[in-house]
Description:
cell inner membrane, about 230 residues, 10 helices, flat, translocase
Amino acid sequence: MSVYRQLSxxxxxxxxxxxxxxxxxxxxxxxxxxxxxxxxLGLATILTLVASNGLISLLRNHIPDEARLPVFVxxxxxxxxxxxxxxxxxxxxxxxxxxxxxxxxxxxxxIIGRAEAYASRNPVAPSLVDGFMMGIGFTAVLVxxxxxxxxxxxxxxxxxxELMFGEAARGFQIVIFEDYRGFLMAMLPxxxxxxxxxxxxxxxxxxxxVNRRQAKVSKAATEAATA
Length: 227
C-alpha cells in the first residue's frame, strides 16, 4: 500500500480522529445539531489541519525540541485567527452560530496531535495529505452526526444552507417528515452523545466483521497450503 493510500485509510477509517482517537469531541458534540453547522466547522478544521501540518513540516528542522509545543500552538492559533476573521467577514451568520467553537479549534487535540505525531517528523507533501485526510474523516463524522440529529430532531436535512452557500441555497432544504413535531432530545447534548455512540458502535461492528472474514480467509488459505 502506498504512503498516500495508507494516509487516506488512516484518516478516513482506521485512525479517524473522531471515531477511534475520540479527539475534538467538545465542538463535535456541541455544534452538530444540523448538517450545515457540522460542515462549516468541519471545513474550518480541514483548513487548519492542512495549513498547520504544512507549516510545521516546513519548519520542523528549525524548531528546537524544547519549544516545539509552544511553536505548534502559535502556528495553529495564527491559522485559526485567519479562518475566524474570514468566516466573520464572509459567513457572518454561520460564524455567530458556531460561536466560541471556531477559536477553540486551537485547542483541538486532533490538530496538535497530528502536528506532534506526524507533521514534525515527515516531509511537507505527506504531511499535507495527512492533515487533509484526517480533516475529511473528522468532517465526515460531523456531517453524519449533524444529519442524524437534524433528521430526528426536526425532520429535515440541509436546513439553513443559505448560511454557507448564499441566498441561492435557500431551497436546498429537504423536508423528510411533513408536519413533524420534532424530537427535542436529538437537538440537545444527550442526543449528540447517543448519536456519536451509535456511529462508533457501527464502525466497531463493521471492523469486527471484516476481521472475522479475514481470519476465515487466512485459515482457509493455511489449510489449503498444508493439505
